[in-house]
């Protein structure tokens, strides 16, 4: 028995209608006026071309024509799109190890303005600093005393070195006594210099444990109680007073950019070309990377860039 669906399809074919089943196209029944199978293929081809005119290759062809028009008729070389980003963005890392004792999370998403964002423990460092400062004071006193002793021995030696009544042994004894005292004085002065240097280094280390920044703080990484080592990321910051836009220009058009003014969204701007890479980009292998820098645009916004 014929199924109901098959009967309906047969009736439609008799009336001259096309019947599509899956990917097969059944022409109208013989003797019935309607579209021929060849005409059906032509109609399908026309529909496919119409679809391509709005998507895929058709759209690319229209963009190429538009670019050619911009390049010749209006004085613009080409139109590009790029996202406005901070001029510089980087991660601040720790120069010294230590335990995090304070984090000002309220500054995240704001400008630091040189306020302290993260503090590391400095308890042990301050104890060492106090001991070194005490040692420094003692060394200064020892140097003063040793200098007086050395001066006295030098005077005694100078008195007898030309006396004929003193034997060579006496003169030698006085000389070695004087030079020994002089060496002790030099040794104390060397220790004083080393202690002063250690104090300066320790103060510098203590200073590095209070981390601040004048830039916009994008993200703060550590939390109170965590331990950070040398090179651990502390926060990500950005220079938001200036912006940059990165675009990719076809290799053959890059030389034409020299001396051109930059238009943003159809209006003149203060943006200028800061860099043009002379090697193809890793992702856009037929284009050079071009970086524009300026100020006054909202960070994150996608803009149209033109050159004239």
**Helix count, DSSP H or I runs of 4 or more residues:** 5
Question: End-to-end span in angstroms?
Answer: 75 Å
Q: Tell me about the biggest sheet?
A: 8 strands, antiparallel
- Oligomer kind: single chain
Write down the secondary-structure element order: HEEHHEEEHHEEEEEEEEE
Percent helix:
25-40%
The count of DSSP E runs of length 2 or more, i.e. the number of strands, is 14
Characteristic key phrases:
308 residues, alpha+beta, Elongation Factor Tu (Ef-tu), domain 3, 3 domains, eight-stranded antiparallel beta sheet, four-stranded antiparallel beta sheet
Question: Describe it for me?
Answer:
With 308 residues, the protein is of the alpha+beta class. It folds into 3 domains: 4-52, no CATH class; 77-88 and 237-307, Elongation Factor Tu (Ef-tu), domain 3 (Beta Barrel); 123-208. It has helices at residues 4-14, 37-52, 56-72, 123-160, 168-208, and strands at residues 19-21, 24-26, 79-93, 98-103, 115-120, 210-213, 216-220, 227-228, 233-250, 262-264, 267-268, 272-280, 287-294, 302-307. The strands form 3 sheets. Strands 3, 7, 9, 10, 11, 12, 13 and 14 form an 8-stranded antiparallel β-sheet that branches. Helix 4 (123-160) runs antiparallel to helix 5 (168-208). The radius of gyration is 42 Å and the shape is elongated. The two termini are 75 Å apart.
